[in-house]
């Protein structure tokens, strides 16, 4: 594949240019392949030249007296621009001084040639100083640029000659590297003749560039001469005319100022001390092969890193330390073992880095150093262990080193042997932060019986002792089950776990919930097998011993039974009397869970003495809802059952009805009575049990039978389908009736006879008082109706007599009888 050519551009004042048809400054010639827009936007801003004030004041016309402005920068599109601007005296008119700029545009694909060999950039000898109009406006592309290195044989001596000592050089290099990763500019003035200062600036830039890592060189932009400090895009370091670095000259308060012409350095945040890379660069200044070797190391390690990381000064401080260790210089490791491990870990854990082979080799070198020190009975610092473990955990899915495992076991044993308990605790803490490695170590420990106690049992028991709640304790057991399953077969560990859990369980307020949580945990825990059974047996014994039955809900009793249903007989044989009795209560109450298929009281309480039965009834009563529901009616019957009473009349009926009314209201009371009429336990044969009948009657008699006075409620009570209960209702209704109603009810027969006699007597009396008992009883004709019957002439007297007879109501005759004798009637 042929290399792309290097393109050129000339810029000066002429009669016309590429972009203008009249006289003035413009590009006067260019390579055909050079884009016009690139020329205008990228190259033109750098085609400038400001003559030194001193020469202007003298009106010096000799171009040899003027400095050259050497410039280089990286364009945003990737090309490398290398150019030079020089003073060339009078222009074509002979009246105006002018300058000439010549720029080379290096294709991005060829930029590395100039980056990795500073002499090819700083030693270019092929710059033009003028252009013949007759030559036309086209410049030929070139494949190579002739160059000659200007690097002094003894850079340190040369630097001293221009007034740059070791400290100043390090500060310059520091400022330049910082500026590449920030927006800060570096301004430098050198002593001496202005033209000589410009030439020295070019050589100094070549020396500094040779010390820069390749990535920083790729971004470096510089100008070897400017009359004044100027902030220009793409330019990081600018050499300026002596005396131009002054307040108000366009310098910001953040820029680095090296006014070396007057021995002043300002705004450089420099701290005395060790600067690993700067020290390294100064030490090997003049030995470019060593510097290039380091730069190649950085390129390899940083392959794939993000740009910010590649442009940070601290990156090269860190990599310099690693590079020196790789080369066998262990001084920095000895000075700061933990720090070196930390640096190595940081780079190993960088996901963007694509080539970590040399870093892994470095890790092996460092580990062998640590192992050798431990063999000499020198314990590594705990922080070194922390960073070492991090470095070994940085590569995902990397096989665990057996050498590392044995090393860590040795560290722990030697730490315990030296009674450095705090140190050992820290090592364990850092080790547990790498679960996979920690598990490998612990599984290895179980393979060596002589170290199980010091390295596992003592540590595990100490960890368990630190917990104050059941949840974290169970998590600790799970941690060991996952990390080293052999832990659950270790008697010391399981005993410690049991004692810890039982102690925490004793302080737990919600006993059943805590026990269920622990049971559920071990059921789900893989690998627990039968190793947890002794612990759970002790837990369940403690549960029965400490559980308060009156604190449980209905469903809780069934849960307790489920916990204990698979226990062997030996478990129940080991219970004390109180726990056995409590278990019997729980089993009985579990039957009632859900209020379904509640047995009859005599069956439920069979075999219980009065004291035990009273306990059960109290528990059932406490479990009933404050707001009673029909589903709970069978439980109410259990609560008010009295075994000491004889026969089926064995309930505290009055108390039972009062309880239902108080906890359910009238609706529930009515439903309860309805329900009770279907339960044989409340009957003697076909009749309501006498005690219950009496209690119901007392209930219905309350408030003078108020429950039957309301028309709607009376209908509801009489709707209950049971003959004996309806008879009871009639009794209550009769006994609560008003006095008048009672009177009619008690003498109904006598009153009926009297009424008949009164009616009969009234009728007979009426007939008796007629003038002629044998008179014609034919009804009188209707008023106004004529009649032709004979005897009508005597009707007039009869009418008068009838009209004189007074009508007396029957009730008045009964109350004030005024029956006249027969003779008196006849006389009349």
TrEMBL record:
Residue ranges of every copy of the GTPase-associated protein 1 N-terminal domain listed in the record: 6-144
Keyword rRNA processing: no
Region (Disordered): 779-801
Pfam family, one: GAP1-N2
Chain intervals with Low complexity compositional bias: 791-801
Record's keyword terms, sorted: Membrane, Transmembrane, Transmembrane helix
Sequence ranges assigned to domain GTPase-associated protein 1 middle in this UniProt record: 157-261
Domain of life: Bacteria
Transmembrane regions listed in the UniProt entry: 750-769
Protein name: Glycosyltransferase
Organism: Brevibacillus brevis (Bacillus brevis)
């Amino acid at each position: 594949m042929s290399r792309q050519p290097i393109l050129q551009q000339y810029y000066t004042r002429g009669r016309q240019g590429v972009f203008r048809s009249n006289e003035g400054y413009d590009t006067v010639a260019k390579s055909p392949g050079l884009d016009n827009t690139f020329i205008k936007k990228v190259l033109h801003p750098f085609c400038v030249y400001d003559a030194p004030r001193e020469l202007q004041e003298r009106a010096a016309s000799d171009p040899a007296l003027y400095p050259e402005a050497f410039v280089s920068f990286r364009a945003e599109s990737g090309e490398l621009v290398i150019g030079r601007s020089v003073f060339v005296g009078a222009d074509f008119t002979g009246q105006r001084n002018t300058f000439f700029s010549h720029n080379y545009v290096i294709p991005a694909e060829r930029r590395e040639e100039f980056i990795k060999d500073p002499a090819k950039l700083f030693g270019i000898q092929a710059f033009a100083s003028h252009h013949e109009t007759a030559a036309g406006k086209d410049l030929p592309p070139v494949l190579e640029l002739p160059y000659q290195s200007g690097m002094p044989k003894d850079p340190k001596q040369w630097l001293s000659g221009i007034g740059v000592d070791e400290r100043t050089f390090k500060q310059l290099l520091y400022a330049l590297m910082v500026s590449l990763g920030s927006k800060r500019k570096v301004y430098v003035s050198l002593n001496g003749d202005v033209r000589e200062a410009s030439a020295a600036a070019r050589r100094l830039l070549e020396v500094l560039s040779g010390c820069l890592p390749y990535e920083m060189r790729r971004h470096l932009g510089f100008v070897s001469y400017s009359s004044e400090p100027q902030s220009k895009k793409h330019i990081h370091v600018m050499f300026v005319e002596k005396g131009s670095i002054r307040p108000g000259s366009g310098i910001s308060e953040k820029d680095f100022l090296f006014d070396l012409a007057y021995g002043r350095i300002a705004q450089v945040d420099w701290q005395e001390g060790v600067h690993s890379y700067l020290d390294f660069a100064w030490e090997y200044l003049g030995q470019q092969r060593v510097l290039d070797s380091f730069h190649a190391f950085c390129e390899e390690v940083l392959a794939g890193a993000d740009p910010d990381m590649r442009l940070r000064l601290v990156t090269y401080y860190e990599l310099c330390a690693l590079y020196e260790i790789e080369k066998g210089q262990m001084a920095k490791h000895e000075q700061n073992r933990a720090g070196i491990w930390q640096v190595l870990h940081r780079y190993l854990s960088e996901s963007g880095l694509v080539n970590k082979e040399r870093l892994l080799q470095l890790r092996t070198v460092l580990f062998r150093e640590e192992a050798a020190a431990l063999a000499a009975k020198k314990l590594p610092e705990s922080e070194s262990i922390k960073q070492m473990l991090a470095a070994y955990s940085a590569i995902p899915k990397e096989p665990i080193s057996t050498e590392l495992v044995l090393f860590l076991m040795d560290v722990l044993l030697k730490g315990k042997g030296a009674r450095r308990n705090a140190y050992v605790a820290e090592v364990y803490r850092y080790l547990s932060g790498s679960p996979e490695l920690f598990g490998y170590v612990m599984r290895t420990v179980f393979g060596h019986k002589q170290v199980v106690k010091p390295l596992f049992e003592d540590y595990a028991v100490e960890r368990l002792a630190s917990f104050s709640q059941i949840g974290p304790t169970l998590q600790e057991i799970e941690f060991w089950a996952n990390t080293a399953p052999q832990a659950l077969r270790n008697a010391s560990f399981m005993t410690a776990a049991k004692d810890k859990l039982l102690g925490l369980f004793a302080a737990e307020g919600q006993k059943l919930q805590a026990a269920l949580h622990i049971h559920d945990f071990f059921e789900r825990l893989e690998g627990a097998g039968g190793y947890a059974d002794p612990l759970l047996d002790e837990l369940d014994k403690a549960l029965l011993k400490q559980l308060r039955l009156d604190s449980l809900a209905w469903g809780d009793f069934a849960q307790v039974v489920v916990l204990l249903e698979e226990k062997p007989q030996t478990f129940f044989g080991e219970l004390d009397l109180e726990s056995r009795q409590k278990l019997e209560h729980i089993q009985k109450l579990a039957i009632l869970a859900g209020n379904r298929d509640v047995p009859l009281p005599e069956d439920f309480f069979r075999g219980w003495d009065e004291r035990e039965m009273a306990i059960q009834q109290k528990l059932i009563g406490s479990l009933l809802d404050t707001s009673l529901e029909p589903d709970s009616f069978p439980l109410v019957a259990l609560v008010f059952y009295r075994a000491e009473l004889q026969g089926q009349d064995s309930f505290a009926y009055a108390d039972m009805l009062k309880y239902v009314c108080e906890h359910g209201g009238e609706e529930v009371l009515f439903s309860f009575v309805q329900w009770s009429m279907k339960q044989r336990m409340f009957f003697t044969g076909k009749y309501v049990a006498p005690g219950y009948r009496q209690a119901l009657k007392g209930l219905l008699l309350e408030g003078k039978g108020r429950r039957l006075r309301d028309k709607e409620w009376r209908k509801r009570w009489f709707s209950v389908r049971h003959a004996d209960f309806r008879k009871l209702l009639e009794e209550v209704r009769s006994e609560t009736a008003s006095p008048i109603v009672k009177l009619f009810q008690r003498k109904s027969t006598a009153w009926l006879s009297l009424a008949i006699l009164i009616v009969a007597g009234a009728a007979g009396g009426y007939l008796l008082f007629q003038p002629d008992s044998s008179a014609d009883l034919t009804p009188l004709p209707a008023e106004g109706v004529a009649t032709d019957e004979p005897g009508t002439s005597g009707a007039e007297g009869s009418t008068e007599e009838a009209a004189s007879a007074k009508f007396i109501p029957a009730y008045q005759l009964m109350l004030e009888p005024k029956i006249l004798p027969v003779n008196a009637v006849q006389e009349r």
